[in-house]
Amino acid sequence: MRRVKRFPAWAVFLCAGAGAALAYVLFRDPVFQAVVALGLVTAALAAVVGGIGRHRPAPRLPWVLLAASLVAAVGSWALWERVVLSTGSPPAPGTVQDVFWIASNVLLLATASFFLARRQAGVAGYLDAGILACAFALAAWALVFEPEFGAAGPRDLSAATTLTYALLDAVMLAVLLRGMPSLRRAPAVLVVAAIAAVLATDSLYNWLGVITDAYVPGAWADLGWLLSPALLGAAALHPDMARVFERRPGRERRVSRAVVALLGLAALAAPVAGVLKLATGREIDSFVGLAFSVLLSGLVVLRLGLLIRRSEHLDARARRLAAIVESSSDAIISMDVDGTVRSWNGGASRLYGYEAAEVLGRSIEILVPADRHEDREALVARLAAGEEIESFETVSAAKDGRRVEISLSVSPIRGTRGELTGFSTIARDVTEQRRAAVERARLAAIAEASSDAIVGTDVGGRVTSWNAAAEALSGWRAADMLGRSVAHVIAPERHGDLPEILTRLRRGERVISFDTRLVRKDGAASEISLSVALVRGEDGRATGFSAVARDVTLTREAERKLREAEERYRRLVEQLPLATYIDAPGGLGSSTYLSPQIGAMVGYTPEEWLEDRELFQKLLHPDDRDRVVAEVRRATRAGEPVLHEYRFVARDGRIVWVRDSAVVVHDEDGRPAWRQGFVIDITATKAAEERTRLAEARYRSLVEQLPLAVYIAALDEDNSTIYVGPQIEDMLGYPVEEWFADRELFAKLLHPEDRERVMAEVRDSLQEHTPWRCEYRMIGKDGRVVWIHDEDRIIRGEDGSPLYSQGFMLDISERVEAERELGRLLDLERAHNEELRELDGLKDEFVALVSHELRTPLTSIRGYLELVLDGAPGSLDEEQERFLRVVERNAIRLQGLVGDLLFIAQVEAGRLALERAPVDVVELVAEAVEAARPAAAEKGIGLAAETAEATPFAGDRGRLGQLLDNLVSNAVKFTPAGGRVTVRASTSGDRLVLQVADTGIGIPAPEQHQLFQRFFRASSATAEAIPGTGLGLTIAKAIAEAHGGAIRCESTEGTGTTFTVELPLAADAELEEAA
Amino acid sequence: VSPLVLIADDDRDILSLVAFRLERSGYRVLRASDGAEALELAREQAPDLAVLDLMMPRLTGLEVTRALRDDERTRDLPVILLTARVQESDVEAGLAAGATEYVAKPFSPQELRDRVDAILKRASRHAG
């Protein structure tokens, strides 16, 4: 670790200083030497000042003195070198230079004297140093200076200076010897070395320069002077310099043998000097020598006096200590390093039973029990390591074999030089103390561990102990409560209890338990149960109270709650609409409790039940009695629960159906403890059940008579069947049981072509909960295909939640068959009709086309006939004209026929359009009559119009004229000569009535209904060869109907025919609009 | 100058009959045996009146009537349609196309001449 890269400053300084000193003596150039010497001293001064500033020594004074000494040395060196440089020889003794040097040495001496102070040698130390200094001075004078200066002493300044130097050296040497510090610290070594170097060099100079005149400046003799500042500077730079002059308090002042020997030699200095002088043959006596001898003797006497006083002091101290040791109740034993007992006090005798005489000189081992050697070895090891032992607990063996628990303190005993000479041991019997401590600890532990609060008080009620449970109970810490009155935690309203308790305890009651209320630190109150006892001391006097407290808040609360709960449950039980009971485990008739509801149920109160043990069996309905009694006995024996229904015959004769449910309750050991149960009146339920059963039977028989299979299915994934009517078997050949057994049956029986569709629909319906209706095919057991109509819907509960699906399956095979047949027929019919319609359309088209194509040639025929008959190409003769008239008449007839056909075609095609306009009916009738008049006149038929006043009528004048023309021409045609035709027009209510009546041949009744058919010709007409197309009446009817009216015919064969046309009169508004 | 009447019919007999009758009554007559010819003559000769059969090859009477009405020169030419079809819709279509009157076949030549007289009299009155 110390192998650092940088050398410490002090070492560098030392090396550099030593090097400079060496250079000084090696290179003897005066100027160089002067520079080196002054530089070195100045550097040392700087180092000391710097060291003081940096390391802050305590005390600082010696270092300050040292610095002052170096200042003086600088001055001295400067003067010295000036003389040496100017003269080449050292200055003569007794100059100013010497003053500086002496000052420097005195200051150095003052520094060294701090070593004396540090050793705490006190007056004795200074006396010793004085004795030594005197001895050195005497020796120096007698042996060196007296021969040189003579007995008269120095006669000039030079000699006095030299003597001063010698004297100073003697004193410094004495101080160094007496105050020699321990040389463990480097700065101390350096300082001592520096002083020694100065001392030696001064002496050498004195000898060389003064005595022998052999001194040459700048030679080897100067080396010590130059080394001294180097050493001092290094010492000041060393970090340990701060503690070199540190006082070491408490150090025993000892007089070492070396000091005594030195002092002895010093005391003998005068005689030795005398002997030496005699031996060299010189004069012995001189004044100075005598004076030194007297001074020396005085100092020695003083020193001896001090020694005697000190010895007496020590002696008294030793006696006092011995007395203390002897009187100590502890065993105090001292022993050698090897364990030999050297002292044994009374306490030891009492503790171990050995007298001092018995053990002195024997080994301490006799006190160590066999099993405790390791303790001893451990102890010895610790002592050897320089430790002091205090309160080492171990066990010793007493003389009588008792084991004594002891606490040991062992200290080493050291000799005057600090060497270990033995041990002193103080042993104390801690057996009792131990036991008491253990007991106390045990009790304390019990108290602390107790879950009950344990509190001790003095007689005044002030708390002396307060365990953890008490802390927990009250919330107050022991530290809070110790010394405080216990009343502090008792609720104020309960303070009144305390005096009475105390009085009773003092009277002699041992323990009093009572409940009181405690107030916790947080203000909450707790109920506590308190047991208080009086504590008496050994003398029987009361010393205090002990109290054990337990929080019973929860207990009291629990008790109260239990009572309340029991009451609540009893009330609950007795309000239930059922009777509860508890039987002893014995069984029948052993009831210990019955709730009052039983009275209302059967008319016997619980008291009556408890009185009459047979009552239960008596009240049982005779039909149920044996069964119930057997069941109860069996269940009781087996310890099993029982649930059965039976009837009681109540006091008033009513039959009461009950449901009885009971269990056996077992105790902790598993033995039946009691039997408890309840009885519910289910008479109403039973009646309802019966009603339900009947109703269900009714509905079931109804459902099962329907010609369809009703079913109910669950809304689960399988849509599993809950019910299916037996009709299903008739339908498909599978009995109901198979439907329940095989969930897949439905799917299996579905016609393969329908299966996928139907199952998908069923799934959707189940998911959506929507009503469902479907027709599909199933394959019956006999292989028949059965058409099924299936309707299904979800039945919901009152809350709307779906419960199940319900539906029916109906065999519609026959209907489907019939529908198919019907469909086939309908198709046929439709095709037929279509054909007819097409044919009809074809006919109409044909008629229209033909009529049109006929008209164009007719136009030419009539047009050219007209031209010819008008005489345009030239006049005709009578015959030509008659023939052409025939052609013309037939052309007109053909034209009429074409017109009629076209008209009919229009009517048939529904394309008849009317051009309504106000029609003058009177004029209309008149025109028709006029038109027919030529033909009538030709046949000799009377033709008359009978019309009332002009009735306003809106109609197609052309069509109405056509209608009347047709009727009138018909009438004329079918009326024989001499007959009469009458045309009437009148209004009847809101109708216009047109009548054409004739006195003709009439129409046979069976043909009358065919009159208005196209091309129908009455048999009478054909028979009479009356010409006609058979279209006139058809057209008349079409026109009448187009006007919203009707035409009818009344005819009597041989008498005549009357055609009546009734047309609705249009409303006035319509008339106006038509106008 | 006596009025010029255009007569168009694919039936030569009818054409001759009507022409004869009108010429006898003092009209000048233009004959056309189909619709296209009728339209051409109407544009070239600027007749005072046209008698058009409804059913004619190339252009029907109806189409000729529309074409006449679309032409600046013939816009006001009176037209009588001759038709064997008496359906309401035919009549309406004819009048809508701009025919002045229609005469159903079969008709008497005298009747047709009376209509022509009436129309021309009305037209001259308007013109006058």
Structural summary, described in words:
With 1075 residues, chain A is an alpha+beta fold. Helix content of chain A is 54%, strand content 20%. In chain A, the strands form six sheets. Chain A has a five-stranded antiparallel beta sheet. Chain A has a five-stranded antiparallel beta sheet with strand order 7-6-10-9-8, with helices on both faces. A five-stranded antiparallel beta sheet of chain A has the order 12-11-15-14-13, with helices on both faces. The radius of gyration of chain A is 82 Å and the shape is elongated. Chain B has 128 residues and is of the alpha/beta class. Helix content of chain B is 49%, strand content 19%. Chain B has helices at 12-24, 35-45, 61-70, 88-97, 109-127; strands at residues 4-8, 28-32, 49-53, 79-83, 101-104. A five-stranded parallel beta sheet of chain B has the order 2-1-3-4-5, with helices on both faces. In chain B, α1 (12-24) links the parallel β1 (4-8) and β2 (28-32). The mean pLDDT of chain B is 85. At the A-B interface, α29 and α30 of A face α1 of B.
